[in-house]
Amino acid sequence: MAQIIGGITTSHVPAIGRAIAKNLQDDPYWKPFFDGFKPVHRWLETARPDVVVVFYNDHGLNFFLDKMPTFAVGAAPSYVNADEGWGIPQVPAFTGEQALSWHLIEALVGEEFDLTTCQEMTVDHAFTLPMALLWPDQRWPVKVVPVCINTVQFPLPSAKRCYALGDAVGRAVRAFAGEQRVLFMGTGGLSHQLDGTRAGFINKEFDLAFMESLIHDPTWATQFSIHELVEKTGTQGVELLMWLATRAALGAGPVTEVHRNYHIPISNTASGLMVMAPQV
Amino acid sequence: MTLPDIPGTTLFDGQQAIKGYALNKMCYSFNSADSRAAFLRDEDAYCAAYGLNEAQREAVRARNVLALIAAGGNVYYLAKFAGILGLDVQDLGAQQTGMTKDEFKARLQAYNR
Fold first, then answer.
1. Which residues of chain B register pLDDT less than 50?
2. Between chains, do A154 and B14 touch, taking CB under 8 Å as contact?
3. Which residue from A84, A200, A235 is facing B31, i.e. has the nearest CB?
4. Which of A256, A261, B20, B96 is least enclosed by beta carbons within 10 angstroms?
């Protein structure tokens, strides 16, 4: 059976792509952010994932408002990045793990999650930049399954529903007949807001409480409505839904906190990073 | 179901999605370099081709983010428009809050306490 080796949650703002393109990893502004990934690189060397299931939100690359799925699962042989309009260099294509994609689709629809399935799918910065942070040489040693959650157009799926989705994905992976070592990744957040006169809003206290909850009280954030989460974390801070799904996928049992970093600001965002591993 | 407003925040709901469809569709087209070039060549013709209404057209002309949001713009698509103008999200934040970019960045930095 496939083995779950852990979950990584990280922010994904486009400015990271510009910083990578300009080699600003040691620049004083960026160093506290990029240095946070050094322990992750060391952990990945021993964790050796074969597949990454990525929970992320598309920002208008693959999906437009003409068709906006709440939950979409990639089932493509490969996934490419493309021009998002602002000139971040594109990364090499990712190879899909189609057998696992369809296994997840079967399991999730079997549990009454009404999915959109995608045999062609571009992946935007929310997918590509975290991958490039994990593997800076961009020679991906893993296959991927993208799971896209709508945070563009309200109504958004509730925190509780995203937790349930992650939980179902985790159970399906554990039941997958293969020898793969599977990593979950959730990208987005933490608190930030790009739009309106409240632009620049950050809530450090909530972010830290949320990160802590993933270790000791994983369903804590499911008590909040989407409206409450936007109020507490900003219109884009609500991307923490990806973190919740990732934590849920690790299962109800305790997890070990392998690593944590939190830094304000990168661009308009409070950046967060966690590595969690299920306790064996 | 009416929820209390979150100050300074417009949730991009169905009402906004209807209102802003043409504007957002135009901004979505800016994923393509050819479209960005076409916009820059003839802004009026490009906006007309996407059927922008007068409020949207005026907000585009003024490069006014709050007016673009009021006209139904979604920030994820507007960011692509901002990209054409060479503006990043901190420029957008500064404009919406009436700060200089340095003031806006300093405010973000101040959260790190």
1. none
2. yes
3. A84
4. A256
- The percent of chain B in helix, strand and coil, each rounded to the nearest 5, is 65, 0, 35
- Domains along the sequence of chain A with CATH: 3-278 (3.40.830.10)
Per-chain mean pLDDT for chain A = 97
Between strands A3-10 and A269-278, the pairing is antiparallel
**Tokens 């820059």 -> residue:** B40
Q: Which amino acid is at A194?
A: L
Q: What is the ipTM of this complex?
A: 0.95
CA A194, A161, B25, A144 torsion-angle sign? positive
pLDDT at B1: 56
pTM of this prediction exceeds 0.95: yes
Cite the active site residues of A: 125, 192
Whether domain B14-110 has CATH 2.30.42.10: the reply is no
Nearest CA in chain A to B14: A154
pLDDT at A89: 87
Residue ranges of chain A whose pLDDT lies below 50: none
CA separation for the pair A82, A180 (Å, rounded):
29
Q: Whole-angstrom Cα distance, residue B36 to residue B83?
A: 9
Tokens, residue A27: 């620049």
Cβ of residue B2 closer than 8 Å to a chain A Cβ = no
Rounded CA separation A180/A98 (Å): 13
Nearest alpha carbon to residue A268 among B17, B87, B53, B18 = B87
Within its chain, how far is the Cα of B89 from the centroid?
10
Residue B13: its chain A contacts at CB < 8 A? Answer: 153-155
Provide the token pair at A262.
């939190």
Measure the CA–CA gap between A179 and A182, rounded to whole angstroms. 9
Residue A205 is encoded by which pair of tokens?
């206290």
pLDDT value for B113: 73
- Using CA atoms, how far residue A141 sits from A45, A122, A131, A202, B9, in Å, is 11, 19, 10, 35, 41
